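Task card 7
Instruction: Convert sequence to structure tokens.
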Amino acid sequence: MPDQTLAVENLHLWRGERHVLRGVTFSLGRGTCLEISGANGSGKTTLLRTLCGLIYPEEGRVLWNGEDVREDLSAFHASLAYLGHEPPLKSDLTPTENLHYWLGVRRLLGKGELLAALERVGARPFCERLVRTLSAGQRRRVALAALALLPVPLWLLDEPTTNLDVQGRELVGELIAEQLARGGMVVAAVHHGLPEAVRNVTRLDLAA
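Output:
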């Protein structure tokens, strides 16, 4: 990956009368991870959605490679993968079908590549079942397969270990570590901290 930078300058955002983001500032370069912590309602998800350009702050800027992301949101979105609380999976499709249609608008995928990614995250045994029959943890594993299939420099993750067992949380740590090792960046909102496999982490506590 070429040199990439994500910088956030003095973000302020209100929700009604509530001042949610108060002068948030940070910068990330290749191979680095930002762990965002804070109590429920402290603004973790709001910050991630602001980074994506889905919410505009009242003050401050989000810069990608030195340019305000609002200048060309489509180009910025092509450089990132966002995984929210609820994976964007269609309940009446299988995991394989979901990944084919979800990711197919961004890159060409072969069946073998899809199955290898599902195998990597432990989802191969249920990859041909309808998503509505899967547990929350199984759906989360399918979403993690999507991350593994998107060669983009920036991951924005909202509680990536939600609904996962111990092995699933370790898998998240491995995937993030691999993203950082190839020069990518990760911003993750968490309640309980990232798995031990993740190194080169800086921390931002929104409750501080």
